[in-house]
Amino acid sequence: MRTDRAFALCDINNAYASMETLFNPSLRDRPLVVLSNNDGCVVARSASAKKLGIKMGAPWFELKELAKAHDIVALSSNYVLYGEMSRRFVAVLESCVCPDDVEQYSIDEVFIDLSSYQALHDLTELGKTLRDRVAGHIGLQICVGIGQSKTRAKLANHWAKKHAQFGGVCNFLEMDQATVDRRMARTEVGEVWNVGRKQVKKLNSLGIASVLDLAQADPDELLHRSSEMTDRNGRVRNQKAFSVVMARTIRELRGETCYELEKDKKPRKQIISSRSFGELVTQREPIEQALRYYVANAVRKLMDDRSVAGTITVFIHTNRFRTQDQQYSNHCTIDIDPPTNDLIELTKMAIFGLSRIFYPNFNYKKAGIILSDIQPQSGLNLDLFSDQVWDEKAERLMTAMAAVAAKFGRDTVKIGNVDHKLPDWERKSENQSPLYLADIDQVPIVY
DNA sequence: TCTGGGGTCCTAGGACCC
DNA sequence: TCTGGGGTCCTAGGACCC
Question: How far is the CA of A230 from the C1' of B7 (A)?
């Protein structure tokens, strides 16, 4: 076991809120929240919004009173903007260290393998350099956490964000054991990466409340614990209470490296495209139209990865929060043989799937499709004995459509009567900021 | 009434992440 | 009135095999 590993986690502070503020400085110091699709829940908060006690995921309609009282600004999400800023964030980091050591973990988080930098650099200083570079180049504040494992880097990042004394960079490698223990003892176990709500409950019942408690727990002993669960038939069964993930988490907390950098962008194993409707839908036709949009969306991703899908699932459901409504949810999974990325065929299958599960007179709230059994297009083996041949015509058509999309924009060619955008009934996005970086007419003007 | 002992593969569902 | 979307990994249990 190598004991000389070092990972950094760089994370943009209040990412979406900061990005919005960057282009609209009048928002600075104002409580600002960014809302999910349909302006449903809060998905990002500025520092002052956090101070007001607004929780991640809180339904926006419940906050309207608070918003009025404190003059909170609520913006619809602008993913085109966030995606572009994210790209620039990663590019800046890649210019500071070897790009091979950089892994983009999420839209606002990047892991860096700093193992080979220790001999030449003071890692805390390097962390400060990264902060300064990102701030200088794209105007966003980041925090850097450094540790012997990804889990420790995440934890250090949490401390860096929480305690101003760190100046934005918290480094496990320069902490003595007593300090580590003291900090871990004061941090709740739920802050640990991969320890979610359910696990916290189980851990607490075993007397494990702090990060230190978990770090000192015996992973093997924990793995042998079982908990009762009720299965679908109402039978009570014993199930393992913790999986190997928990054992790894403990070892990572102790400073052992279990998770390496995941460099090569692997093609997706599953592609989901779905959306809640802005209003309730009872008719089949609008749902079909939405499905066409979802399939087109998913196929774009599929082709980006040069993959084909072997299964398509269509699902619909009513609004579980409307307890006065009769609830219905169902899905239909269809095998695709041979696997394909053909938009026309997949669209037909989606529509067929819908016909199997759609019943009128329910108030539908959401529909979507899932592509799975995904494999690389190049490795596609046709069944020797089937009479199906790789459809060259379809492939040429798809290639042509991709070329048109690349030249004239993604939605230039569509299948059936898909609208340019989602129809009005489908989405609510009432206060979206301009496409500052994606549309020449919306680029900010500096006087 | 009694009725083995292993394997592997697949899938649904749970839990987690952002 | 109004409650997101897109992913990954792991496990249990069933089907099947010898």
Answer: 28
Catalogue the E-assigned strands of A13-162: 32-35, 42-45, 73-76, 102-106, 109-113, 142-147
A265 CB below 7 A from strand C atoms: no
Nucleotide nearest to A239 in CA–C1' terms = C12
Q: Rounded to whole angstroms, how far apart are CA atoms A54 and A60?
A: 10
Helix axes A284-304, A392-408, angle to 10 degrees: 90
Sheet with A7-12, strands from edge to edge, namely A102-106, A109-113, A7-12, A142-147, A169-171
For residue A318, the surrounding DSSP H or E stretch is strand A307-318
User: Of all helices (H) and strands (E), which one includes residue A89?
Assistant: helix A79-96
Please list the rounded mean pLDDT of every run of 10 residues in chain A (447 residues).
83 98 95 95 96 96 96 96 98 98 97 96 98 98 98 98 97 97 98 97 96 96 82 70 95 97 92 94 95 96 95 95 92 92 96 95 95 86 51 73 75 62 64 91 88
Q: Which helix (H) or strand (E) holds A130?
A: helix A123-138
A11 HSE (CA, 13 A, CB side): 21
Instruction: Say how far A111 CA is from B18 C1', in Å.
Output: 14
Which of strand B's nucleotides are less than 7 A from any protein C-beta?
Answer: 12-18
Q: How far is the CA of A417 from the C1' of B5 (A)?
A: 59
Length of chain A: 447
Asked if residue A428 keeps its beta carbon closer than 7 A to nucleic acid strand C, the reply is no
Distance A332 CA to B11 C1' (A): 14
Q: Assess whether A38 (CB) lies less than 7 A from strand C.
A: yes
